[in-house]
């Protein structure tokens, strides 16, 4: 399988190296996994003659204009990690040139993948319109505002759709590489993950910080503060709207636009976040914790934890489980 990694200037060092290392480890392990025919021919390319990482290291690259279409092209993250710096980075001419290359190859059937802020490069090329995708959890509000025609599923670690695959934040580059390896050999992907000490993780939700997302919008932030004071009580949309000084319709619309959630769904996210904190920092039983976050019993909370973040109570008792 011929794979190009399209590196732009100030590429995220870890993202680039993770893709390279994971794919090369898979090549080394292919025979051991009984998948000798699975081989990943990886080349780093760019739309510029010289590329430096965000930490200033020089990256040897091949010119994209001189390359034949690959089977797969992957876009690692840009070093810009926050909305303000990312917006400026996306205005660069090399990003537009990369988008043109990606559109051309995509039209020829090339699978396009990206992780973290690299998903913005693909979305900026209008390739993800009408598709499902994920991105860095803390950049979801910016992504949703900038690309309203993309079906964003930011809680998921990897999302594949027709001709595209996207992965979440930072170290989700390794999930992207493992997803690609799994297409050739599930056994090889599992062995590679074992050698790299990577456990299965289908969701970013356990890592997300809800109040960080809320602070992108004043109205949503007011709702978040109100909600945190009432996690142990029942939810009322009318009371919430009154407390933050707006209408129910406006509150629902703003949360939908910024977070892609209804007020009740976000209220539940805050309950889950609080429950996870208590599970990790206290010895209280699940029924006691459930009562503290507004649920009648531990059974309901257990089901919600599995549905929202894909973790069991025993896994959450271990930090970052």
Task: Walk me through what this model shows.
Helices cover 48% and strands 12% of the residues. Helix 1 (13-29) links the parallel strand 1 (2-6) and strand 2. The longest helix has 19 residues, at 263-281. The chain has 15 helices and eleven strands. The chain has a seven-stranded mixed β-sheet with strand order 5-2-1-6-7-11-10, sandwiched between helices. The protein has two domains: 2-205, Rossmann fold (3-Layer(aba) Sandwich), CATH 3.40.50; 209-316, Arc Repressor Mutant, subunit A. The mean pLDDT is 92. The chain is an alpha/beta fold and 321 residues long.
Give short descriptive properties of this protein.
Rossmann fold; alpha/beta; globular; 2 domains; 321 residues; 48% helix
Oligomer: single chain
How many helices? The count is 15
Overall SS class: alpha/beta
Global outline: globular
CATH fold name of the largest domain: Rossmann fold
- Give the total of domains: 2
- Percentage beta strand: 5-15%
- Output the helix-strand order: EHEEEEEHHEHEHEEEHHHHHHHHHH
CATH superfamily of the largest domain: Class I glutamine amidotransferase (GATase) domain
Number of strands: 11
CATH class of the largest domain: Alpha Beta
- Distance between the terminal alpha carbons, to the nearest Å? 34 Å
Largest sheet: 7 strands, mixed
Strand order of the largest sheet: 5-2-1-6-7-11-10
Average residue pLDDT:
92
User: Roughly how many Å is the radius of gyration?
Assistant: 21 Å
């Amino acid at each position: 399988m011929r794979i190009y990694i399209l590196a732009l200037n100030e590429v995220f060092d870890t993202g680039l190296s993770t893709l390279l290392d994971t794919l090369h480890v898979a090549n080394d392990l292919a025979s051991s996994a009984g998948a000798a025919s699975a081989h990943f021919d990886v080349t780093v390319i760019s739309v510029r003659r010289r590329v430096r990482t965000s930490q200033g290291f020089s990256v040897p690259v091949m010119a994209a204009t001189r390359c034949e279409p690959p089977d797969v092209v992957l876009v690692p993250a840009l070093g810009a990690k926050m909305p303000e710096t990312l917006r400026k980075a996306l205005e660069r001419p090399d990003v537009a040139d990369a988008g043109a290359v990606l559109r051309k190859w995509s039209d020829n059937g090339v699978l396009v993948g990206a992780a973290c802020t690299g998903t913005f490069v693909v979305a900026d090329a209008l390739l993800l319109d009408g598709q499902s995708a994920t991105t860095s959890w803390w950049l979801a509000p910016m992504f949703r505002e900038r690309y309203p025609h993309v079906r964003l599923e930011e809680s998921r670690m990897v999302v594949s759709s027709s001709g595209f695959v996207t992965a979440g934040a930072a170290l989700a580059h390794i999930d992207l590489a493992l997803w690609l390896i799994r297409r050739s050999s599930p056994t090889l992907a599992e062995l590679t993950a074992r050698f790299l000490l990577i456990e299965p993780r289908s969701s970013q939700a356990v890592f997300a910080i809800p109040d960080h997302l809320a602070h992108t919008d004043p109205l949503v932030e007011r709702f978040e503060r109100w909600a945190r004071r009432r996690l142990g009580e029942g939810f009322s949309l009318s009371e919430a709207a009154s407390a933050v000084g707006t209408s129910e319709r406006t509150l629902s619309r703003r949360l939908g636009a910024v977070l892609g959630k209804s007020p009740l769904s976000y209220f539940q996210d805050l309950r889950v976040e609080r429950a996870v904190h208590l599970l990790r920092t206290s010895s209280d039983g699940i029924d006691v914790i459930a009562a503290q976050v507004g649920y009648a019993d531990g059974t309901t909370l257990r089901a919600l934890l599995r549905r929202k973040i894909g973790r069991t109570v025993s896994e959450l008792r271990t930090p970052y489980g």
